[in-house]
Amino acid sequence: MSASTPEESRASDDVRTPDALLHSAPAGNVSPEDLVMAAGRDVTPRTLDWARRKLESEGQAAIEKLLP
Question: Which pLDDT score is estimated for 68?
Fold first, then answer.
């Protein structure tokens, strides 16, 4: 197996990924549990309340701020 240098690797893979394929936020409805986990928090009654309030005030944008 031959190893390629970073320059060789870059030259052969010099194709950009379309921006639409780089996003990981869900396209459908976001649950409070989804938002809590995306924030890196434990799912507890307190964090679920936080997530519900955040989703009510910000909608889908709440999770889009956390995920690319």
Answer: 66
Residue among 31, 20, 36, 23 at smallest CA distance from 64 = 23
Calculate Rg over the CA atoms of the chain: 19
* 46 class by beta-carbon count within 10 Å (0-12 exposed, 13-18 middle, 19+ buried): exposed
Please give the angle made by the CA atoms of 41, 49 and 55, to the nearest 5 degrees. 85
Alpha carbons 64 and 15: distance in angstroms, whole number: 26
**pTM score > 0.70 for this model?**
no
